[in-house]
Amino acid sequence: MSCDEETKVYLAKRTAEGKTKRDVTRCLKRHIVREVFWLLQNPAYEEVGPQLRATRKSAHISLQAVSDDLGVWPTKVSRIERGLEHDPDFVERYEAWLTNKTAA
C-alpha cells in the first residue's frame, strides 16, 4: 500500500467511501488470494495465448476462419488468445490446426 500507485488510489477511494484501513487491507488480501488461486488453477496459461494470436496474425488468418474450422464461437478463440479462458484440449487442437495452416 505504500509503493504501488494503483493500490494507493484504491486505498484513497475506499477510505473516502468510509472504509477503515483495516477493511481495505482485508479487501486487498481477498483480491490477492483470488489472483493466486486463479494462477494455481491455470498454470502458465497466459504464455500460450499471445503466441497463438501472433502466429495466426502473421499467417493472415482471421478469427472467424479459426472458429469456423474448429467449430467454436470466435469469442472462445479470442478469450483463449488473450489468456482469459483455459481449455488445454482446445489449445492443443488450435495449435495443430494452426501448424497445418501455416505449413501449407
Q: Average pLDDT value?
A: 89
Number of helices: 6
CATH superfamily of the largest domain: lambda repressor-like DNA-binding domains
| Total tally of structural domains | 2
Level-2 CATH architecture of the largest domain? Orthogonal Bundle
Any idea what the shape is? elongated
Class from secondary-structure proportions: mainly alpha
The count of DSSP E runs of length 2 or more, i.e. the number of strands, is 0
Q: What's the CATH topology label of the largest domain?
A: 434 Repressor (Amino-terminal Domain)
Distance between the termini: 53 Å
Taking Cα atoms only, what radius of gyration do you get, to the nearest Å?
20 Å
Percentage of β-strand residues: under 5%
The helical percent reads: over 70%
Major β-sheet profile: none
| The CATH C-level class name of the largest domain | Mainly Alpha
Question: Which stretches are low in confidence, meaning pLDDT under 50 for 5 or more residues running?
Answer: none
Order of helices and strands: HHHHHH
